[in-house]
Specification:
Elements lengths: L1 E6 L7 H9 L4 E4 L8 E5 L2 E5 L12 E4 L4 E2 L1 H13 L9 E4 L3 E2 L2 H14 L11 H9 L6 H4 L2 H21 L7 H15 L3 E2 L1 H10 L4 E4 L23 H8 L8 E7 L2 E3 L14 H10 L12 E3 L1 E2 H11 L3 E5 L9 E10 L2 E3 L6 H6 L1 E8 L16 H14 L3 E5 L7 E3 L4 H6 L3
The structure holds guanosine-5'-diphosphate (GDP), 6-O-phosphoryl inosine monophosphate and magnesium ion.
Length: about 450
């Protein structure tokens, strides 16, 4: 069984919590795109983990974790995370952590280029995480990237760094920054590359063998559908494909071997960085946005930036469901809405006086559209930690059912807090069948 977990909105839907919860029932957890722009928070007892590059399954000592070929890996960030997690008592060995030989490396000049690109864009900047993600994917598509396997040959690594840096420095200097030095980069990278060597693996073959041996595989998406470079709110997106098709390419798994797709959806929406956000709470709703931000701890797990908050967008989420083929949805953060008297849900868009039911492709149009809202009553009572659907207040159940109906997909899991056990699994759902291992 191979299940893909995908963020349906603009990220931070709670993928980490759900992957951690499901990981118990699976044997292998693999990331397939992105890099340390991700921040997946997992709480286990009194310990808090923020996973950036490592799959959230790493916390389970008997699971094997994979960093797939579609990822971009900063070796420094990789070992910082490995060391941090080891300090917290999680053992991380090459037996249980495999890094694709075909994944691309993020180099120090990619970080510098991410900065210059954002500076150059000025008011139009994307608000990236400045981790070098975009420039590393540019090099990949430009066929000059340095892959993990390439870096294992010291001569090739030197050659590629020198050649790529020559070009990168032209841009870095043009924007008034100090050029980087190849010898310094190599002095920093080479020991890290050596340390990486035992982790390197033909991961697509490893995953194929695991599947043949009837192992259960979880594919952990980072970022989300609306940040997808093809399907998201371009150009305000990341540079990879978090959507379901990307899982097949980025893990090296044939599409027809994927058994199911689980969408992770928040009961409201957030966005970090710039870019259109049709249901963003208005200035007049600032107190609601602040309440949600505080109750939901809506600050970036990586950058600590306050997340922009908005209402649930059923049009955008339906688009995500269609694109990814969600079989089931895990709805997170129900408890965050406990304090609201009324809750708005966007059920359509209006543009130039006309109703539209799809997401415009152009950012300027996305900025123009006016959401059409339906307002539902809040339940104004505590749902934190509830584990049974029937124990939820009636209005909370109505809200959940309303979202499921508008998006057209079952809600198979409801999260009522950040902890593992603060979860409702809906009986007789597709999600329940995955959870119970059928
Ligand atoms: P990810 O990037 O999709 O893994 O999400 P993040 O970890 O960046 O952000 C989600 C945040 O919400 C984390 O701090 C989680 O611990 C927290 N969280 C997840 N599910 C729930 C929930 O049901 N209720 C509350 N209150 N917090 C949750
Ligand atoms: P997780 O996996 C939320 C956003 C950045 C920026 C845009 C491009 O935790 O959900 P990048 O550095 O990728 O080039 O930035 O994408 N972004 C995220 N927003 N959650 C994430 O990851 C994100 N990863 C990137 O804020 O707007
Ligand atoms: Mg996150």
């Amino acid at each position: 069984m191979i299940i893909v977990i995908i963020g349906a909105q603009w990220g931070d839907e709670g993928k980490g919590k759900v992957v951690d919860l499901l990981a118990d029932r699976f044997d292998v957890v693999s990331r397939y795109q992105g890099g340390h722009n991700a921040g997946h928070s997992v709480y286990v007892g009194d310990k808090a983990f923020v996973l950036r590059l490592l799959p959230s399954g790493i916390i389970h000592p008997d699971k094997v974790c994979v960093l797939g070929n579609g990822m971009v890996i900063d070796p420094k960030a990789f070992f910082e995370e490995v060391d941090q997690i080891t300090e917290k008592g999680v053992s991380v060995s090459p037996e249980r952590l495999k890094v694709s030989s075909r994944a691309h490396l993020i180099m120090p000049y990619h970080r510098a280029l991410d900065h210059t690109s954002e500076e150059r864009l000025g008011n139009e900047k994307i608000g990236t995480t400045l981790r070098g993600i975009g420039p590393a994917y540019e090099d990949k598509a430009g066929r000059r990237g340095i892959r993990v396997a390439d870096a294992m040959d010291p001569e090739l690594l030197k050659l590629r760094v020198e050649r790529n840096l020559e070009e990168a420095n032209r841009i870095i200097v043009l924007y008034g920054h100090q050029p980087l030095r190849a010898d310094e980069i190599l002095a920093e990278i080479s020991p890290l590359v050596e340390r990486l060597r035992p982790f390197v693996c033909e991961t697509s073959h490893f995953l194929a063998e695991a599947r043949k041996a009837s192992k259960k595989i979880l594919l952990e998406g980072a970022q989300a559908t609306l940040l997808d470079v093809d399907h998201g709110t371009y150009p305000f997106v990341t540079s990879s494909n978090p959507t379901a098709g990307g899982a097949s390419v980025g893990a090296g798994i044939p599409p027809h071997h994927i058994s199911g797709v689980l969408g992770i959806v928040r009961t409201y929406a957030t966005r970090v960085g710039e870019g259109p956000f049709p249901t963003e709470m208005l200035d007049s709703e600032e107190n609601i946005a602040n309440l949600i931000r505080e109750r939901g701890n809506e600050y970036g797990s990586v950058t600590k930036r306050p997340r922009r908050c908005g209402w649930f967008d059923a049009v955008a989420t339906k688009y995500a469901a269609e694109l990814n083929g969600f079989d089931s949805i895990a709805l997170t953060k129900l408890d965050v809405l406990d304090a609201l008297e009324e809750i708005k849900v966007c059920v359509g868009y209006q543009m130039n006086g006309e109703r539209i039911d799809t997401l415009p492709a152009v950012a300027s149009e996305l900025r123009q559209i006016e959401p059409i809202y339906e307002t539902l009553p809040g339940w104004l009572s505590d749902t934190v930690g509830i584990t049974e659907f029937d124990a939820l207040p009636e209005k909370a159940r109505d809200y959940v059912n309303f979202l499921s109906e508008k998006v057209g997909v079952e809600i198979g899991l409801i999260s009522t807090g950040p902890e593992r056990d603060q979860t409702i699994i809906i009986g007789d759902s597709t999600m329940e069948s995955w959870f119970s291992g059928n």
